[in-house]
Amino acid sequence: MRQRTVLVAVALAFLAAGALWSQTADNPELERLFREDQADREAGPNADIDWHAVSNRDAERRGRVRQIVDQGGATTSMDYYHAAMVYQHGTEVPEYDEAHRLAVKAVELDPENGKAKWLAAAAKDRSLMWQGKPQLYGTQFKKVDDRWVLWDVDPTITDEERAKWNVPPLAEQKKKLETLNAPRP
Q1: Distances (CA, A) of 154 to 92, 103, 112
Q2: Distance (Å, rounded) from C-alpha 105 to C-alpha 94?
Q3: Which site in 12, 100, 139, 141 is 20 to 30 Å from 175, CA atoms measured?
Q4: What is the pLDDT of residues 55-68, one digit of tens each?
Q5: Helix ranges restricted to H, 40-169
């Protein structure tokens, strides 16, 4: 009888471990939507991309991400990061604000998630930029007269604050302009 009790206890422990694993596993659909989002952009910011087609796919992905999140399908830091990145590629300030909210949730779940930290900063900056305000961290570039520029940056934000959000120092961000504006081969 004792052996049976031990076996039942072991079986229950395995079931509990399986339930715990299933609650902490990343959502494969959110990961797939994230990968599709990134694939649409992998050619780089100066590539000849059909942005109208990409925008349509982005809208479809955001709609599906919204359903998944609203139904409780996002549970891990990476789930929220994946969802945030899809929202980061929205077209309106509320979508950038949602990207920021989702990325902050990812950081709350895993304070070591450097990608989510950077995305939280970038989404905040994008929201501010599209409101015509200076960005905080210096993550957003915009094409003006066929040249990339770093959007105005709030001068009160320090490189130490940027580092907390996994954003390079402002001087490094400014150096990216050279690469962005380099003549294409």
Answers
A1: 21, 21, 26
A2: 16
A3: 100
A4: 999 999 999 999 99
A5: 51-70, 77-88, 93-109, 114-130, 159-164
